[in-house]
Fold these 4 entries.
Entry 1:
Amino acid sequence: MELRLRVSEANVDDLASLYRWLRDDPDVAQEAELSLGTAENQPGAMGWSLELINALIATAFSGASTVVASIALWQQNRSTPSTVRIERGNNTVEVSAPDLPEARRLAEELLAEGERSETSGDCTPSDAL
């Protein structure tokens, strides 16, 4: 499973900070392969950096939960947390507050939306926070 992580264009320097944070997290290192990349400009992406972090996750639920929890912890350590957009296919959630239980709920929502769209063929974006 692939997750794509973006930050607001206004906070593009935060992408490098988030990448280093995730790369240095031993739990994330066990669950995901990270790389920096760029994306095509897509509808709904206005205001979001075209540079992104790709996270290839081997085990869907635990991997996504680990990555999203690490993002929430990264936000807790920042004086002004940036909103992080997490995309899986056409499904999107936004983590904008350093709230670990909320981040885990968002990971579950992202996975559930992805599973529903993979089985039904529908892709309904879901924005949260």
Entry 2:
Amino acid sequence: MNLAEQAEARSRDRAIVSYLAALILLLVAIARISVSDGSWFVIAGAAALSLTSLPIRLFEWRKLAPLLNDETTRDHRRSSFAAGFWVMLATAAVIAGLPGLHIFDAVVATRVVITAGLMAALIVFATLELRASR
């Protein structure tokens, strides 16, 4: 398998891991919505870190890193950040605007907003990466 095929396989693996990270983030957020033991923070931080190029630069071979962080991937990352931003903004507006949702305290509302935004960013990134690998 040549270098381009290895990078393509790693890109598909990264997309699948992004889908799984979104699912795990949702499950942890639901299970720990009122518990503040730090598990949600660790999972959310790992999910956010996976959207950056830092894991590629730290854990990949030097030869694969430029192929895994090319223009297309950077564009996908940019698009996923934008989608995450808009989902966070919409979620915050819904929580603040609906009178029945004022049962949340600030910590829970923040977790809901961040979870929704990270999930949207992870799903958009994974979808764009898989679509590009076809």
Entry 3:
Amino acid sequence: MVGNITTIITKINKACDDLDFVSARVLIETNLLKLSEAKQYRLLNSNGRVLIKHVLANSKEETSENKLTRNDLLTIKKINEYCSNFDISMLKRTLKSSFDLVQRDDILPLLNNDAKIILDNMGALLDVHQHQ
């Protein structure tokens, strides 16, 4: 196993020296657990170290953050349209099925001003004043 990891580290260093960061990143992602150990990490060159930090930071962001789906974005678009057109009946129907979506922190910047005002007055935005 030790010979295998040193070969991988050599390949990563060579790829980083050749500015082939795609291959280096693939090697790092497939062997992330071993390479994140201190003794293996020290064997990487400076570009390899920066790349492994970048891969680790991206993996932490992806796991901690729930991504919006296409349906979520379409629902937000419809909410914005209903609020701009002042179509309260359709807005209420949409909010029945997507009330949890409106409560998320990352949704507030996606809402237009009309939607923020109407949803706040309806009581759908619980913590809107803390965010603005």
Entry 4:
Amino acid sequence: MGRDLDDHDPAAFSRKLQEMRLRLEGRGVEAVLLLPVQCIEHWLWYLKWHRENPGQTKNISFETQPRPEAKQAVCNARKCLTKHSNPIVAELVAGLDIDWLASRSASFLAFHTQVQEYVAAL
């Protein structure tokens, strides 16, 4: 199951998801969760903003911004190597406040809900 709000209207996504679930129901088919890198980069952007503005309660939206803007905001470069981005990511996710991120990002909330439902079904 994938989620990328930049490419789908949330209502259309929900309809398609329900259709897919109905088609798979009763077939014993396992589902795979996938995260487009674009979502992750935007989530990291939220975390960076939160770290730089810890007292702010303003609800901002980065998910409609183009992917290169997210990469620039997070890594200070539109393209970067993994060896450059890994330390940045490690710093941003240290002490990750899942509830805060879920309250700010619709795509993260959807992903987090899917993971919780999957774990609960185990």
